DNA sequence: CTATTTTGGTTTCTTAACGCAACCATATTG
DNA sequence: CAATATGGTTGCGTTAAGAAACCAAAATAG
């Protein structure tokens, strides 16, 4: 049956992974953030099979992460652009990038360094913080008990 | 051939996805952050098939996201605990959680609210910021050209 | 000490997803 | 009209996921 789904899970991480948790979706979103918009460009830059790309783009559009825009005179060309929901994955992608750079350094030793277009400043490491700005690790947080109990296990036991 | 790998990609997002980019790994890490340590507990709380769980745990241990700890008298019991590398996925998980809560609200309307154990404060939304603290969107950043060109497309063309 | 349960797996089998390559239709270019 | 670019779809073989059964060692119950 492959691929369990978690649409009804009370865990938002599980629900998020439903939409961008497969091998390709997040890379497509990343590529879109780099500016790629065309089917063929995604295909060539990612080296993804066309049918898979087609499937993922459709799904991302269905999930409103991307939107399909007709361009050109007679609508024969489309572009896939990030929606606000898609652009909102920026912190996820950056967090993942920083984790990758820290723990699996590039074999070429040159991590991609994004910078603020305006000031040229580098990006600060992503951190989990309280409202007050205090940095938190996993061990610093707790979860109300009754919520913890059904965090991500309910989707399975009831289905 | 299924599942392309990106070990040699110069894109750290792609490399990160190699380790935690499948359907289960990040959920396992999440569950570990909730305090789960035992094989059977992971299995029951996630509803994952045992062979898949076994495979993922092994892989996460291989990738040093988890470490396997012998507990009990005669070493018949193991625990899987997060390493520092694993705990360092906290920002990724939180970013994903916040995205899920924002764009795919819980069907039960009760997003899990993590709080600082010490102060009781809620977690601030994750944001990409410059060193100076300025919040950045996708559109605010740029990437040096020569780096962008080979961001995530090289792993395929050469392999 | 034996029977049962817990724990941490492995094996088998079916089904779904992936990847490749070929094919296709429309629109542009020459 | 031929060639090419674009955005797909179709077929087919391979691989990975999922369910359930099986297994062995250790803990627990009686």
Question: How is this structure best described in words?
Answer:
Two copies of one chain form a homodimer. In chain A, strands 1-2 form a two-stranded antiparallel sheet. With 159 residues, chain A is mostly helical. Mean pLDDT of chain A is 83; it is low at 146-159. Helices cover 42% and strands 10% of the residues of chain A. The longest helix of chain A is centred in the middle third of the chain and has 14 residues, at 90-103. Chain A has helices at residues 12-20, 25-33, 39-46, 50-62, 84-87, 90-103, 145-149, 154-157; strands spanning 66-71, 77-82, 115-116, 141-142. The first copy, chain A, has eight helices and four strands. The interface between A and B is large, with 91 and 91 residues. The first copy, chain A, binds a DNA duplex (30 and 30 nucleotides) through helix 3 and helix 4.
User: What structural category arises from helix and sheet content of chain A?
Assistant: mainly alpha
End-to-end span of chain A in angstroms? Answer: 14 Å
> Which parts of chain A are unreliable, with pLDDT below 50 for 5 consecutive residues or more?
146-159
Total of DSSP H or I helical runs spanning 4+ residues of chain A:
8
Strand residue percentage of chain A: 5-15%
Number of DSSP-assigned strands of chain A: 4
Radius of gyration of chain A: 19 Å
Give, in spatial order, the strands making up the sheet with the most strands of chain A.
1-2
> What portion of residues of chain A is helical?
40-55%
Quaternary organization = homodimer
Task: Choose one word for the global shape of chain A.
Answer: globular
List SSEs of chain A in N-to-C order.
HHHHEEHHEEHH
Q: Which chains share the greatest interface?
A: A-B, 91 and 91 residues
Q: Largest sheet of chain A, if any?
A: 2 strands, antiparallel
